[in-house]
Amino acid sequence: MKNPPPASRPQPLTLRSGRSDRISLEDGAVSLTRGAVRRRIPLTAVEEARTPDGRTLEIVLTAAPGRAATTYRFTSRYAATLAALRDAVNAARPPRDVHTPRVDGESLVEVVAREAPVRLRDDMPRVRRLIGVALYLAGLALMLVAGDGDAVLYWAFGAVTLAGVVGSVKIVKGLWLRIVLRGRGVTVTAEHELSGDRKNLYRFTDTQGVEHRVPIGFDTQSHQHPERLRVTYDPNRPGRATSVLPSSVVLAQVSGLVLLGVPALVFTAYVFLYLPVEVLFL
């Protein structure tokens, strides 16, 4: 009688949530990744896995008598997969009874911290700048061929107001980010550094011990880059960070938007949207 074929090695159970959160059971441990931090929780440190509400998996660690147990939670809408992962963890962990001495499971957890990548996005990448310049010159040539002196003057001045609109958009994005982070942001001190590509970056360490580098523009009071700066970052996406500004500076930005940004937007829309139609067809 032939021996039965050896059982194939089970594939690791993996469940994802959001952009970067992930939990899996593989190689005798639970691997839990949140953002840029990955923790390896050996099964010897796990007291039990449970799903109290069907949408949250709780990995409860062992704890010494009289000590509170550390619990890691992972939420997902895939209840069936959470239940399968729960059962797999409970089946794979070492058997224990009430008389087995417990150790502090948190001391067995290995934290693997990866430095978050620096994402630098220019407001106007080179390709878009070249396309914009080409379109602007083509429009200027159109005004010159049409022989409308006022249109040429408006078109030339439109470049100035367009720059004002771009600056206003940056201010609006910064103000919106400050509003979003007002309730949930974490404020830390960041240190200035100049990267090789000449982007002004500020380096800070989040509450998980992960180092981040984020670009901070000229939005400080002195319009310079001090060596140290208070920044507020999103704990769910630490790459989203903004400098802490006094209320007087924020008020000045809002006033500038109302007094200069709105008129610049109206004039720019007239020059680049309506004026070509007027010269060509009206």
Describe the structure.
The protein has 282 residues and is of the alpha+beta class. Helices cover 38% and strands 26% of the residues. The chain contains 4 helices and 13 strands. The protein has helices at residues 79-92, 126-146, 149-184, 247-281, and strands spanning 13-17, 21-26, 29-34, 37-42, 46-50, 56-61, 71-75, 110-113, 186-194, 200-205, 211-215, 228-233, 241-243. It has a 5-stranded antiparallel sheet, with helices on one face. Strands 11-10-9-12-13 form a 5-stranded antiparallel sheet, with helices on one face. Strands 5-6-7 form a 3-stranded antiparallel sheet, covered by helices on one side.
Query: How many strand segments?
Result: 13
Number of helices: 4
Strand content: 25-35%
Distance between the termini: 94 Å
Order of helices and strands: EEEEEEEHEHHEEEEEH
- Class of secondary structure makeup: alpha+beta
Strand arrangement in the largest pleated sheet:
1-2-3-4-8
How big is the Rg? Answer: 29 Å
Shape: elongated
Fraction of helical residues: 25-40%
Mean pLDDT: 80
Largest sheet, in brief, is: 5 strands, antiparallel
**Low-confidence runs:** 1-11, 219-223
Task: Name a few traits of the molecule.
282 residues; alpha+beta; 5-stranded antiparallel sheet; disordered N terminus
Please write out the topology.
Blueprint: E1 13-17, E2 21-26, E3 29-34, E4 37-42, E5 46-50, E6 56-61, E7 71-75, H1 79-92, E8 110-113, H2 126-146, H3 149-184, E9 186-194, E10 200-205, E11 211-215, E12 228-233, E13 241-243, H4 247-281
Helix pairs in contact: 2-3, 3-4
